[in-house]
Every structure is written in structure tokens, then in C-alpha cells.
Amino acid sequence: MDAIRQFIDVKGKSFQVNLPEGFTATRVEVIILPSELSNENEIPNWQMDLVSERIEAIKQNPDLVLEEDQFWNDLENEG
User: Fold this and answer.
1) pTM for the whole structure
2) Which residues lie below 8 Å from residue 50, measured CB to CB, with a gap of 6+?
3) Where along the chain do its domains lie?
4) Would you say which domain of life the source belongs to (predicted)?
């Protein structure tokens, strides 16, 4: 399951969600949470792009992902 997260400005009592190319679902679940972020506190686009690239890399190479216990063991063994 893929999730799409967007911060959208509400105009009046409505907003519009633009779905990405290739989105094929015919039914979605919508959860609306108020966002207290102002423009100066929003996550920069470059950072969101970087996270998206990393997620895609993991999807294409799932063997690169370590379980949390393995991560901590490897970290302890480095020192």
C-alpha cells in the first residue's frame, strides 16, 4: 500500500487533491488533520524529494533494509 501525504491549503470549506500519474485506486480513505505548520516550518521540497528517492530505492532493493535489532548490533560492533 502506498500512502500520499500532502499539505493543502483550505479555501472556503473545500480543498482539491491532485493524484499522481499512475494512481489507479477507485476508492480511497481520507483522514483530515488540521496542520499547524506555517510556511516557514514546512518540510522543504528538497528534503521531501530526498525521502521519496530513498523510499523508491528501498522498494527496488528491499534487501538493503536492516531490521532494527540488526542495525543496533551492527552499530555496537563498529566501535
Assistant:
1) 0.40
2) none
3) 39-78
4) Bacteria
